[in-house]
Amino acid sequence: MNPLFERPLAIVDLETTGADPHRDRITEVAIVRVEGGEVVDRWSSLIDPEIPIPYRIQQFTGISDAMVAGQPNFRALADDIAQRLEGAVFVAHNARFDYNFLRTAFAARQIAFDPPVLCTVKLSRALYPEHARHGLDAIIERHGYVVENRHRAMTDADLVWRLLQDAAGAFDDDRLLLALRRAGSAGAAVPKLPEGDLEALPEAPGVYLLFGAGGQLLASGRSNHLRSKVLGLFTGRGDSKSVKLGNQVRRVETEFTAGDLDAQLRELTLLRRHVPEKHPTRALGWHFVPNRRRPPVLEELELQGSDPLEWREVFGTFRGQREADNTLRELALLHRLCPQRLGLENGRGACQAYGLKRCDGVCVDAERPEIHDARLLRALASLAPRAWPWPGPVAIAELHEASGRAATHVFDQWCHLGSARDEAALADLLESPPRRAFDLEVARLLQRWLMQPGHASAVRVLAQRVA
């Protein structure tokens, strides 16, 4: 007997109103029971979820409110479904999703449900490691399957059955046994899905936030393929760190964007809202004070929120005091500058660096201050803020054609003046722009984005400088 078929299998596929098994409901179930490598029962039914089906889910599955009206609810079918699953390995593609929905629905009827589980996403990954994608759409393309009514329960259950048959014929017993060990688990070992409509996420650019059981933000990220990225955290894909993170997540929030720059700007806004202590809004710089006899000769400036066009002889843009001081210490070491004169060290007389022969002695009158300060200015020249490369403000337009989501971002002097979702909003923004307010994280974000191949060509210089 082929190792895949040594035990009875119940191949299951569900369609639902969303991805949260505690809030959403099942709208369709299909079960293909296999015993001894042969199909002994094929059964499916629409189910009245007793709640409205969200429009995006109707578009995704093709199941409408009208289709489920008058159909039995889960309570009416629970005993029949449990009997069809009894004594079999629970098999599903991304088994965590279907298993959690049935476990929750059965629990409401006080029906025990804890079968062994075989996830065919994991099985495909174990048998075909040379392929990067293992969703049903990828498997259809890989194997050349011809299907109709994709995302209907019986269609998808039949696809899983075809995958098992092909695998049984393509691999020897040892390879199949190894893959089964990697893809199977005891029922109690299947982690719970987080809240959020994960299955309905489109393949579009966006931002995701992952929250733990206590509501704390565990991680965030962005992707041009949001659905694949987020679902990958909950299907065992990736390294052990990613899998561990996925098991801790209890809620997922997502936002769709027009492109990568839109996603980066939005992610920064969200992180500052949820974990402000990790994303401070500071930007420090220095101003050199000429002809000053007594230290320090550098004045610290707070640049965050200021207008870069008003800066005069500013050196450096730093996230905070530590970054600024560490940079200054490196300059002192490289150029034999005096920590006392720079304001890094208090006191009079010889500085510590002079005793280590790392200062030319301006602190003990062994070097004239003007010579020291000339050397300091040469060192500071490398820290001059990056010049704005355009004669005025610019617009950067992004469009995700599949979703139709668009955004035009307006920048001037590295300051983000705003983003418009349509031409009317853009006209309003350009007619009454906000004042330039420097934000170091936004400036660095934009500079990194512009360094990517092809991105600079998306910049459109506007006709006049925004006041």
TrEMBL record:
The record's catalysed reaction(s) read: DNA(n) + a 2'-deoxyribonucleoside 5'-triphosphate = DNA(n+1) + diphosphate
| The organism's place on the tree of life at top rank | Bacteria
Q: Name one GO biological process term.
A: DNA replication proofreading
Q: Name one Pfam family in it.
A: RNase_T
Which residue range or ranges hold the Exonuclease domain?
A: 8-173
- EC numbers listed for it are 2.7.7.7
| NCBIfam families reported in the protein's UniProt record | dnaq (TIGR00573)
The protein depicted here goes by the name DNA-directed DNA polymerase
